[in-house]
Specification:
It is built from six helices and five strands. The chain is of the alpha/beta class.
Amino acid sequence: MDDNYFMQQALKEARKAFDDGEVPVGAVVVMNEQVIGRGYNQVERLNDCTAHAEMIALTAAFNSLGSKYLMEATLYVTLEPCLMCAGALYWSKIGRIVYAARDDKHSYRRSTGDHIPFHPKTRLEQGPGETESLQLVKTFFEKRRLR
């Protein structure tokens, strides 16, 4: 199991969001090669603007471990985190974040520029899955415009 495998798990979550009419973002939290939290965007379903994939996956991971810190964990997410999710990730002290695709419109970078708002020990990497992640988002918004 490697970054490709776990990003595919995050992409499965993103496809669930797509199928539910949500912006297709998915995330999984992994520790010791085990998924300990997963989530996909549920903003519309829950009528909650904070119900992003990362937030749901983090909450599941915290509950799984019985801990508020994830220093040994990795978050795999299909789209670069927004500023809200970046704040939650900062406080979680997550060890590593791997995202599939950049999000120039809504990522944390829109507010922070080149400043990385994650915990100083968090490693941030762009990983596999960029093409599939971007295609899901593009298709979602194309379908939405046709309504």
